[in-house]
TrEMBL record:
Region Disordered, residue ranges: 201-233
InterPro entries given in the database record: Homeodomain-like_sf (IPR009057)
Top-level division of the source organism's lineage: Bacteria
Source organism phylogeny: Bacteria, Pseudomonadati, Pseudomonadota, Alphaproteobacteria, Hyphomicrobiales
Identification of the protein by name: TetR family transcriptional regulator
């Protein structure tokens, strides 16, 4: 097993058995069978290993993607991708449950993990054929991150093999997201004339400032001491 993957697996094994805050990087290195130097070459911190875990799950989900749902509605494609993500994470559920509890009260860690989640969900949406570009792309992406976090809260406590509660929560979040994006798109269309006007005014101001700067430069060129004639005295 490559060192990066071995370190991820080691951390998840340790996190399933002991509190997150008790795990040291030396513990992870010993569990993974790597030196601290090798650990440092792979990851700069324990938290970065969680980023490695997310990328590992990303890869599993993306490699398992097929074209059998290409003709299905967007909602069904997204539902399938996110359920496959939960399936890929299932072997690590005990560890993720402990990690979630430990990090819930750590705003800095949550902010860092939000960025990791944004990167992951960008690829999940792409796999479902959903664009994250354009004026509403960032809103859409952050919305999916928040929605999936809510679903994960349900999933972590869902011990039913059929995951009925989890699937119901995911379906609900996707439908809520659809309604939100429809309203956001309506607002964007309604405000388009005002945004165009603001853009025009802004561009006009920029052109005037550029013209003024050119005029200032021309005056300076005629007076080596600057734009103020009195400076020559």
């Amino acid at each position: 097993m490559p060192p990066r993957e071995a370190i991820v697996e080691a951390l998840m094994r340790l996190a399933a058995e002991q509190p997150w805050n008790d795990i040291e990087i030396g513990d992870i290195a010993r569990e993974a069978g790597v030196s601290l130097a090798e650990f440092r070459d792979c990851y700069p911190s324990k938290g970065a290993v969680l980023g490695g875990f997310a990328r590992m799950i990303d890869k599993q989900v993306l490699e398992g993607a097929g074209d059998d749902l290409d003709d299905e509605p967007t909602r069904e494609r997204l539902f399938d991708v996110l359920m496959r993500r939960l399936d890929a994470m299932d072997p690590y559920k005990p560890a993720l449950r402990r990690i979630a509890v430990a990090l819930r009260g750590d705003p800095l860690s949550l902010a860092a993990l939000n960025q990791v989640a944004l990167n992951s969900q960008r690829f999940m949406l792409a796999s479902a054929g959903i664009s994250t570009e354009g004026p509403l792309g960032r809103v859409k992406l952050q919305g999916v991150v928040i929605a999936f976090a809510r679903v994960m809260d349900v999933w972590l406590d869902d011990n039913d093999p059929a995951l009925a509660r989890t699937m119901a929560a995911l379906d609900r979040e996707i439908r809520n997201g659809e309604r939100f994006m429809e309203r956001a798109e309506d607002v964007r269309r309604l405000t388009a004339p005002f945004r165009a006007l603001a853009h025009s005014l802004t561009e006009g101001g920029r052109r005037r400032r550029r013209r003024d700067r050119r005029d200032d430069r021309n005056e300076d060129e005629g007076n080596p001491l600057g734009g103020d004639p009195a400076a020559a005295i």
